[in-house]
Design brief:
Elements (H helix, E strand, L loop, with lengths): L1 H40 L8 E6 L2 E8 L2 H12 L6 E8 L9 H9 L8 H14 L5 E6 L2 E8 L2 H12 L6 E4 L2 E2 L4
Parallel strand pairs: 2-3, 5-6, 5-7
Antiparallel strand pairs: 1-2, 4-5
Helix pairs in contact: 1-4
Length: 186
Amino acid sequence: MRRAFLLQAMVAVVILVLVGCNSRAVDDSAITAKVKSKLAADTQTSAIKISVETKDGVVTLSGTVPTTTEKDEAVKIAKNTEGVKRVLNEITVNPDSLGATNLREKAGEAAKDVGESVSDAAILTKLKAKLVADGITGTDVDVNSGEVVLKGQVDDPKKKVKAEELAKNTAGVKDVKNQLTVKRSS
């Protein structure tokens, strides 16, 4: 009897330890996702150029950006994210690199007479990050020549309207077709 109790107690301790480890990994993943989403939604940072890793609540930022302004903004965003205990800043500054703070300038150099344009992939990345940061899930986003089509299901009518608003306010978007449907409550 006593042996069975000890065995049960040991199993319970092992489960608690494993769940605790798993929980920390999930928390770290959630923190990384929050920081990446905030970086993508911010017009002063390039989420694609900045790598984010989280271990035990400590966020490490790395990558190369064109200005100290962009580097400082990324650190500020990470520090102001829920769950972040500390930020290690390993971002380097290279004025010749492409980033959010000089995208127009670099695009102008590359395109000269064509004018400013944002690629469909960049629109898709920014918009998806904005949707996630706003808690809007269940969407499928298509972008073709700057025209966005929103599909899928959202939880309520407010999220449908918000998704369209976010799409319309994303740089490079020319038109938005909102085909989202609202889930029926059971």
